[in-house]
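Run log, item B.
One chain of 987 residues. Sequence copied directly from the ordering sheet:
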Amino acid sequence: MRSPSLLALLLLPTTTLAFKANDFKTCSQSGFCRRGRALSARALAAASSWQSPYSIDPSSLLLDPHEASFTAAVKSSLYPSTKFELDVRVHDDGVVRVRMDEMDGLRKRYDEAASWALVREPRLSKSEDVKWIVEKDGVRAKYGDNNNIEVVVQYEPVKVTMFRHGVEQVVLNGRGLLHMEHFRTKEGSQPLEIEGAEGEGDAQTVFHVNNAAWFEGEEQDAWWEETFSSWTDSKPKGPESLSIDITFPSHPHVYGIPQHATNLSLPSTTGPSASYTDPYRLFNADVFEYLPDSPVSLYGSIPLMHAHGKEGTVAVFNAVGSDTWIDVEKKDKGTETHWVSESGILDVFILPGPDPTSIFSQYSRLTGTPSLPPSYSLAYHQCRWNYVSSDDVRGVQRRFDEEDMPVDVFWLDIEYSEGHKYFMWDSKTFPDPVEMIGDVEAKERKMVIIVDPHLKRESSYPIYKVASELGVLVKPKSGEGEYEGWCWPGSSSWIDFFNPNSWDMWVKFFKTKSLDDSWAWTQSSENVGIWNDMNEPSVFNGPEISMPRDNVHYGGWEHRDVHNINGMLFTNQTYNALYHRSDPPKRPFVLTRSFYAGSQRFGAMWTGDNLGSWEHMAVGVKMVIANGLGGMVFAGSDVGGFFGNADPEMLVRWYAVGAFSPFFRAHAHIDTKRREPYLLDEPYKGIVKDVLRLRYSMLPIWYSAFRESSLTGVPILRPQYVMFPQDEEGFAIDDQFYVGSSGLLFKPVTTKGATSASVYLSDAQIYYDYFSHTAYPPPSASPKSKSKANSEVNTGRRVQVPAALHELPLLVRGGSILPTRERPRRSSPLMKHDPFTLRVALDVEGGAKGEVYLDDGEGYGYEKGEIVWRGFEASTTTRDAKKGEKALKIWSKDLAFTQGVPLYDPANAFAQSIADVRVERLVVLGVGRKPAFVELEGSRKTLEWEYEEGVGRESGKEDGEGKKTGVLVIKDPAVGVTSDWAIVVKF
């Protein structure tokens, strides 16, 4: 859902507009960004003579005797009386935190961004684990394996550098762009006047001396007031921006800082190779029909940047919650970046890597891993703005059943509510909400209902009335009363979720039974999921379609300080309310449009108001991957595009994209034609039906990937550089991805009329087409090279894969075992007792591995060990060295037991509940010759099987590419998914 930018259009909901660049600032229209870029330009012009004015007072250095940290006073040669303090800490996992704040100033700078993002206060290394060396010109710390990591803090000018094996990895203030605009009074900020310096009497000249002009510029550019369009920002605290340059000398690619519609490897924004004229912006904004290639800020902001090169990976997390602009310039072997934020303190976390997996682990220890979602939320979601009545919802459900198409969730947008008063049903169109929800849930499906953050200012509206009486609404710049803006209900106010007094209130609102005098949502159910939209926040009549920056939040902080965090707080408290809605609690499902670092702990996100175009389909793939790098792994783009009417070909392709996105939802604007998949003509309807059923068959793969991500922070969708960090050819590839650790490699088709797709393969491994079983073996190699097939060797190659409209470019990497459930069902809960098929894709050495993770999918029993977590393996062995006879063995083992899951009992209640679930079929790919027989080990039971002749997994590119592989199908071995077993294939 998206608002028109003009208040007048509130009465014209069917009006469609294009992206309006004039609604949003460019850097040149933003005072603090202008100042930051001008500072960078002056430094560049001065070249080698430029030196940062900030330095450390060595006499103030204070090393902690117990933990790996120190503090020191920092002074500026521009303002000697202004005090700053530097705090450097080494965490127990090697992450380095660098903080600098203004001390004893006129006011306190906002320093709480990290407290909202971090899952806990990080543990520091012990002093004995970090070797501190204090020298004349700085202090250094050595730690890690063989002291391979070194952090050097230079005194004058202040500079922080992280080295690995003596090679620079990250440099803070190496270019001298650090600038913390200190608090000052308007009167005291004028240049020093010296009278009588020249001339006599009436001819006396007054000289103005400003020793800071070389650094800050001659003009007080937007220090105390700033106007954009018809809005004026009063800026009562004056200038307070923060500038810092961060350089990655050994890393030519940078990724992350979502959310932007651009390439995964971020293009330059400055310098001779710049792709854009403006920096990347992090400012959560309600952007209408955003451009598919732009550095413009979108709905969420995660100030995390990964830097990668062949020698390794590092990252920085800049914990700031205000409007931030980031310039990127690619250099010879590295990348220079410049971060300029409107307010806040310097609070940078340097993540040392040295590889992508380590970065994900280090970042997730800071901000938390993604929550494990309810299993139904990984299935297909059907939405539009709006299903207009309870009968409409029932009708849509009936049509899905009539067409035998699976769906798990139906959504309601804002029109369900009476006058856009959320929680309050429109009794004319939804006269029986409880019964309607019950009808959906009776088919083992769920509903998701929207709750936006704006409250209609109407005394009869209980949500507004309670919030107003509690005094938990955002205040205007005066700090008194309630801020009034305009959104869907008209005159609106916004809950200030920074105020702790709002939290219990929000929990009570979502209760489905009223236990006291509090208002409760009795016309709901404990299974209803919640959609948090418009939480940037979107304000129709506000600057940049958002809240004025001088509004006041709890604690006296201005909105400018907390803007990018605001949306996360709304989702956080909604998640908390749903958690406390039932006893015992059920896993909440919350979808958010706005997010910040740490939002992965509270649910899913989508890429907002996209357009039904091939370009938006393509960039949506890149955005979902980039969001995953920032921790937001439960992500997707609206299938079909929110705006416009996708033609059947585009819609079919988009369903394929959605089926391989972690969050899979079709959604449409109120203007669009109805486009539920059952409305398509043939052959399009049949193709989409097959795509939906494919997603459902693969739900065990997706759920296992989510489980892994919830433990490790590694994203669900993995680009080439994450999978193969040594392969330079893959570092910029962002139009294909792997699904978790499954071995599935998908190449979305995002161009009209395509009949084939070019897929890049990094490793010396065989790949198989998931559907046709066509083999794509590596180039023929010596046995020595083949022995390294699962490691990274320079064998990158491209293969052409069939991709007609009914074909998906989906490959299986050799060495993978994929668990699927092939029985068509109308919703995923009905699959809980369905049997499994195992696809065993043999690697070039004849081995394979895979796993499946199962739990009840809705509660928290998994935290008590109520799970089934099985590993599957295959290996080929030589039975007789002289005859060369071989045997293939495939077996199952208990991963939960072997990996020591706390409280785990193999006979737990959940495992017993699915004890009857069996493996009904094994499909083995890469079998080069017909077996002699197949048996269940230990039982002497001969199993039924079929063999389809084809090339084996040992074949090279010259004789095997494009040919079908040999396929062995083992039928109903009668083995349980919860038990240990082994099957032996003898040749």
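Observations after the first pass:
- The first strand starts at residue 54 and ends at 56.
- Residues 343 and 862 are 42 Å apart (CA to CA).
Flagged for discussion on Thursday.
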